[in-house]
């Protein structure tokens, strides 16, 4: 069934697809889809991999492991199909929730195991349908570079490169023992996804302004690297924290500074600098889902924990924030304290965005989540009413959105309850209810790849 949201005018850009994993109960070996080489026209079939996170100790914690299952895009759109990843899925190696990425055409899944004895191990799989994911290439470990719980992402360079990052911090004092600053040391490793090898690794001390550091601010977390349009700069999202300079004790109630991004030369990973937005405040490191995307020569980046609600920020080709671009989710959605949990634009500059806001009901695992359809050029957003919502619909750990042409695939299922795949046609403003997702107690779905 379909429900009309609203119409958009045609735009152009670059599209990339993302996949998560699933499992199907009445077709364990779906027919292999014809692919279009990653052009994402939406006219040819491709694999849709659904990812499911099993409960560990608490409902919705996702710490019991990740299972994936692939169906054709035709089956993903078919509401008579039932998908049961918790019963039939392939176990993605990871001690906790796996950190998954997919190739642009959905034919390959990339995984880096998170935490535990295998934490930091990179593996690559060919998607063959159902629960069949065949390992290809060598398994390598990036743990020596970025630890066993790495934060990594696939760069948008035609499935060539991944980038993983970490940060460590240390308080510094003068000869009299007085606090002077907190040093942030970042490490960045780039990974050859084709040949399963390390491309480059660099480590840097990254500074804020002298005034900010004297007041106790420092970079405490980094994530979500993305390349600029020229391919010569790497942007890394950052979170700031603060200590009391008099005691070096962590503070929680402090002035939130303008959103910041670390910029490195690419591919050398040298010459770190920090840029600051005057439009958005808060963090740009995101969480589980990609937080920044290239569109029409600029990078569009979500921020989180903004006192004025999340914004989508713009970094132009000059590698600086464009502070004339103001896109407030609070204003666009008519809510307060909007918080972007994850998002993904299609080639036309229209995106599906997962969010919560002040007043969101608190369910089994946390605040209720919602989906919105946004337009990067018009700076508009509208809640997707055709997708059903429930207090236990939890999107904080959401990882993946498949983009196929102007269509975006998402999963909807409250914690411990069944749900469905939904396909949003961003150009026509239509939503199609697809295959049923069969859940188990305390578990949830974390997206499509």
From TrEMBL:
Residues 27-36 have a biased composition (Low complexity). Residues 24-44 are annotated as: Disordered. This is DUF4374 domain-containing protein. It comes from Arenibacter palladensis.
